[in-house]
């Protein structure tokens, strides 16, 4: 089943992408949730026209995303967590904590756009990927330190 995504869907695609999914996933999840529309001839034409008209706006959005990535640069952030004697974290380090650390540095990033490359389990250095735009992804280093 071919559908046109109306919004970004993690591990599937980005807004206005035409993707092939299993029919059950499309009928039972994507279409009822309003995340996609059927990719018939008419809808494809409408989306193509909308994409063509929004091309210059998309360039500006990509430029803004690149500016955020440049502002973050190679900075490393410290995330405080309760740590046991062996160095293991009590609880979890979440993307919300990393988003707040970025916000403290003057960069506002939605926590849903952040994903850990490796889930932090103990004190130490880790990396996370920030998906700022479908063509702009930025790696961020952060240190989990004892509180």
Features:
4-stranded mixed sheet, 147 residues, Ribosomal Protein L9, domain 1, single chain, Ribosomal Protein L9, domain 2, alpha+beta
Give an overview in words.
This protein is α+β, with helices and mostly antiparallel strands and 147 residues long. It folds into two domains: 2-53, Ribosomal Protein L9, domain 1, CATH 3.40.5; 65-146, Ribosomal Protein L9, domain 2 (Roll), CATH 3.10.430.100. It has four helices and seven strands. It has helices spanning 23-33, 41-53, 55-72, 95-104, and strands spanning 2-5, 18-20, 36-38, 76-81, 114-116, 124-133, 136-146. The strands form two sheets. A four-stranded mixed β-sheet has the order 4-7-6-5. Strands 2-1-3 form a three-stranded antiparallel β-sheet, with helices on both faces. A hairpin with a 2-residue loop joins strand 6 and strand 7 (136-146). It is elongated and about 60 Å long. The chain starts with a strand and ends with a strand. The model has no long low-confidence stretch (mean pLDDT 89). It comes from Hymenobacter lucidus. It holds the Pfam family Ribosomal_L9_C. Residues 1-46 form the Ribosomal protein L9 domain. Residues 64-146 form the Large ribosomal subunit protein bL9 C-terminal domain. One of its GO terms (cellular component) is ribosome.
């Amino acid at each position: 089943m071919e559908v046109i995504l109306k919004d970004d869907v993690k591990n599937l695609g980005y807004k206005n992408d035409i993707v092939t999914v299993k029919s059950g996933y499309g009928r039972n999840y994507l279409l009822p949730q309003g995340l996609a529309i059927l990719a018939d001839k008419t809808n494809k034409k409408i989306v193509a026209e909308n994409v063509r008209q929004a091309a210059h706006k998309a360039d500006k959005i990509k430029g803004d995303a690149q500016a955020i990535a440049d502002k973050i640069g190679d900075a490393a952030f410290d995330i405080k967590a309760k740590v046991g004697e062996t160095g293991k974290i009590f609880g979890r380090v979440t993307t919300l904590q990393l988003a707040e650390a970025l916000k403290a540095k003057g960069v506002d990033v939605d926590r849903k756009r952040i994903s850990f490359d490796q889930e932090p389990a103990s004190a130490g250095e880790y990396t996370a990927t920030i998906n700022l735009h479908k063509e702009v992804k930025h790696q961020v280093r952060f240190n989990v330190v004892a509180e």
